[in-house]
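Person: Please comment on this record:
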Amino acid sequence: MFNRPGLKRPLLTACIFLVVLLLQGAAWAASEPVVSKIRLSQDAEKVRIVFDVSDLPEYKIMTLENPLRLVIDMPGVANKGIAQYRVNDPTVARVRLAAPEPGKLRAVVDLKTPYLYKVFTLKDPNRLVVDIIKDYEQKQVEELAPGLTYTSWLRNQASGPLWAHILEVDPQAGFAVQPVLSNGVIKGLEPLLPMAERAGAIAAVNGSYFGPDGTIIGLLKIDGEIASTPALPRTALGIMPDGRMLIDQVEYEGQVELPDDRTVTIHGVNRPRGENELVLYNGLYAPATGSNNFGREYVVVNGKVTAVNTGNSPIPPAGFVLSAHGAAAGLLAGLSIGDGVRLQQTLGPEWDKTRHALGAGPMLVKNNSVFLTTKIEEFGSDVAGGRAPRTALGLKADGKILVVVVDGRQELSTGMTLLELALFMQELGAQEAMNLDGGGSSEMVLNGKIINRPSDRRERRVGDALAIISSRVAN
């Protein structure tokens, strides 16, 4: 016979065991830390991220470099439905919460720039705190050869991250700086790497401003021959035959003396001819002038006119072409084959002695003081506006040369204004300094490699460059 109380005892025992399990599970659930909220504060020095938690969690930290992330794993922590928190800051992009596996919560801080961090917990109320330190600086100095030093300088400042590439060149150690033309001529464009390779350069940076066809905008003088002229006085770098360098504003004056002793003004060198202009083309421009047939062109060799054409004249290697239009063509109308002409060009007494010259501007530093000539030299917002990638050259009191590229328009480096660039060049020790072309053109190559991050994400084809070469090669 069945004993009814005996039948109920196992059932009662099972029920009690189940209740105990449920109560224990509830206790475990109650003790599991939960992230209920993310809070954030920002100032010039740091971004503070606060995770409000029901109980202080254990955590493990990992750092990733590509992509740049700070990862905090919290085993046994639950999430109260928070997905992400976007941050408007130059250093921190966003904060995300995810569960990479059951029973683990992962906090991911996506970053825009290198950083320092500090992670700690606080009680009453319970918090996990992450400080992202913005005041970050990393400087790496490498002596490439005696007298040639490269510095990579990555730092954060109030305006955001900054990455600068600095070459310090000592001419006394056997190095020289000289301009290099794209493809060896004015007309046309070329990336910096092949230009540096062709010149046998140890390093190079972009140089002058240039037009879509490669025409140099500003002064350029190579091996004593004027290759391009400024439309108005602008800052240029001059290199003397003995290697001495100077930075100043330079103006070009040119004229042609005709057989009847009249002189006609030259409006420019090696650029497209405009209305009523006289433009001089020499062998540094291209094989031919490329001009239209609405003017008059005089080919001159050894001081005598050897041919008269209407346009697109071949440029003799040892001569030049005078290309005239409108009023200027009328002034030259009496010239015939065989007539003698005399060319007169000057950049001023001191600058006429230079072997090389390269213009850009504006000036940044003069006599060890910030001296911006942006308005004087009539630069517009395309050069002077806002933060951008920049290239600059400076001269130190001890005769050493500073060649600088600052990356910009990217998360890792915001770039500089011209004033910030001037202050930076002054900080590096420049007594005199000038701005070169910037933006997507800003690039530095070293030993056959691009060492900065051009904002175009690739090499931009440019009109000319400044190359650092051995003095033996330069001579």
Q: What stands out?
A: The first helix runs from residue 4 to 31. The CA atoms of residues 301 and 318 lie 6 Å apart. Residues 1-30 have pLDDT under 50 and may be disordered. Residues 139-249+351-474 form one domain.
